[in-house]
Amino acid sequence: MFRWFDDRLGIAGWTRGGLRKVFPDHWSFLFGEVALFCLVVLVATGVFLTLFYVPDATLVTYEGSYLPLHGQRMSAAYESVLDLSFDVQAGLVMRQVHHWAALVFVAVIVVHQLRVFFTGAYRKPRELNWLIGIGLLVFALAMGITGYSLPDDLLSGTGLRIIYSAVISIPFIGPWAAFLLFGGEFPTEAIVSRLFVFHIMLLPALLLGAVGLHLAILWRQTHTQFAGEGAREDRIVGKAFWPSQVFKSTGLMLLTAAVLALMGGLIQINPVWTYGPFDPTRVSAPSQPDWYVGWLDGALRLFPPIEFTLVGVTIPSPFLPGVLLPGLAFGIMTLWPFLESWVTGDHREHHILERPRDAPVRTAIGVAALTVFVVLTLSAGNDVASLILRIPVEETTNLLRFAVVVLPVVFAVITYRICRELQRRELASLAGRPVAVRLERNEAGGFTPEDE
Ligand code: HEM
Predict the structure, then answer these.
(1) Phi-psi bin for 227: left (phi > 0), alpha (psi -120 to 50), beta?
(2) Cα(123)–Cα(121) distance, rounded to whole angstroms?
(3) How far apart (Å, rounded) are the C-alpha atoms in residues 196 and 1?
(4) Is 57 helix (H, G, I), strand (E, B) or coil?
(5) Most buried of 25, 117, 251, 327 (most Cβ within 10 A)?
(6) How far is CA 398 from CA 374, 393, 408, in A?
(7) What is the separation of C-alpha 102 from the centre of its chain, rounded to a whole number of angstroms?
(8) Three-class SS of residue 23?
(9) How far is the CA of 39 from the centre of ligand 1 (A)?
(10) Using an 8 Å Cβ cutoff, are 108 and 74 in contact?
């Protein structure tokens, strides 16, 4: 059979090269793959859910088997999710596996991105894969938000209201963009079917296309690798694609699917029947979104209600925390590889990774950004924290405001110090021992300042 294809497509050479391709044998290179396998589970369970989900906001009276909501007026979309949970065989476990896979998917993407960031794997020639990666993160977040809002329950409806107020707060184009997205003033009949089109068609197409491109570029550029064991800028050390990487990845895929199935079968998530159908006149407390939008919610809760006028246009208070801040954060993240090489003047190719200690400034900045992200995410639960700590929510909020400003600086300084100390100790341990260092001459035949 292979010869048949080779006769017609001439694939022997490519396949032989592909089967021998070397993959670095380090656990930190597995996060990208786990994200990939979460995506496989998401698509498989998602297809099942679309067979029963009804993307319709028309009001109906519930007559299904969940008695506490009997006779309740609700949207056909919410009703179909109740039916999926109580009347469709395996419906509830599929819903749960899908939801857990979404939460884990975004978490693994973030960990993968942190791995790439703290080891400098985005440096030349991998800036393009970093840019595509940021796109993947944005698509994954959008998939999460649209999917999470499809049941049309009270909690996700509250989330949509917050998104609506952030969109409408954008100067000059806000009302137009909100109308385009929501089909009118929130809540609208159109939003459920629009979310459905985004969630099952537009965003998956963008996501799968970007993943394909991401992996194709990776295959073309090969992986980076850690220093040591004969690794060189022009030579990869590791295991061949066939058989070891294939079996390792297959095992990892089955393990990922098994863990997600266990979570879906054993741990309740998003019990929409306890929230009730969406009703714009009601909001329940505490209302927390899924973890990956917690930082946005937290920023809206912590930011003082600043309203200002710009060339005669009033800029409502959700704009700064809900639009400008996230825009800035994603802007800096996207441009990071270019900003770093511009500041350092380092435009060389890098296939050998750096350890966090080798780049103290980058590591300190990364830790500071992560601290802001964590404090903002925790701030999405300021009301819950106040209940637990038995202190007024205003005090909790002020405490978190203090933390989001001070903690990143403190942790950045500590991290920088730790990196420098680790470097110093390593150099001390090397003192007196001969070391072989490989230096590359630059175009002019000389050495860069660092190498000197
Ligand atoms: C759906 C989301 C994603 C999937 C499925 C994915 C998949 C992968 C896989 C399988 C690898 C090779 C193994 C590894 O290094 O883990 C990889 C490498 C890479 N990814 Fe991603 N990735 C995703 C998102 C991202 C994001 C958000 C970024 C950064 C913003 C990113 C940047 C990179 C870079 C720069 C490499 C090359 C790293 C190297 O050669 O060491 N990826 N990705």
Answers:
(1) beta
(2) 6
(3) 42
(4) coil
(5) 117
(6) 16, 9, 16
(7) 10
(8) strand
(9) 13
(10) no
Q: Pocket of ligand 1, candidates 41, 104, 112, 131: which has the most ligand atoms within 8 Å of its Cβ, to mutate?
A: 112
d(CA 73, CA 89): 24
Local structure of 61: helix, strand or coil: strand
Instruction: Return per-residue pLDDT of the chain as tens, 452 residues.
Output: 889 999 998 988 888 999 999 998 899 999 999 999 999 999 999 999 999 999 999 999 999 999 999 999 999 999 999 999 999 999 999 999 999 999 999 999 999 999 999 999 999 999 999 999 999 999 999 999 999 999 999 999 999 999 999 999 999 899 999 999 999 998 898 999 999 999 999 999 999 999 999 999 999 999 999 988 778 888 888 889 999 999 999 999 999 999 999 999 999 999 999 999 998 888 887 888 999 999 999 999 999 988 988 888 889 999 999 999 999 999 999 999 999 999 999 999 999 999 999 999 999 999 999 999 999 999 999 999 999 999 999 999 999 999 999 999 999 999 999 999 999 998 888 776 666 655 666 667 776 666 66
* Locus of tokens 């002020």: 398
**Nearby residues of 328 by Cβ (< 8 Å), 6 or more positions away:** none
Query: At which residue do the structure tokens 């639960």 appear?
Result: 381
pLDDT, residue 443, reads 64
Which atom of ligand 1 is nearest the CA belonging to 35? 5
Residue 10: what residue type? G
Q: Residue 28 CB: number of other CB atoms within 10 A?
A: 17
pTM score, whole prediction? 0.91
Contact between residue 195 and residue 150 where contact means Cβ atoms under 8 Å apart: yes
CA of 32 to the centre of ligand 1 (A): 5
Cα(46)–Cα(38) distance, integer angstroms: 12
**What is the residue whose two structure tokens read 């391709």?**
21
Residues 6+ apart with CB under 8 A from 47: none
Quote the DSSP letter at residue 431. Answer: T
Closest residue (by CA) to atom 42 of ligand 1? 133
CB neighbour list of residue 131: distance below 8 Å, 6 or more residues apart: 334
Q: Give 112 Cα–ligand 1 centroid separation in angstroms.
A: 6
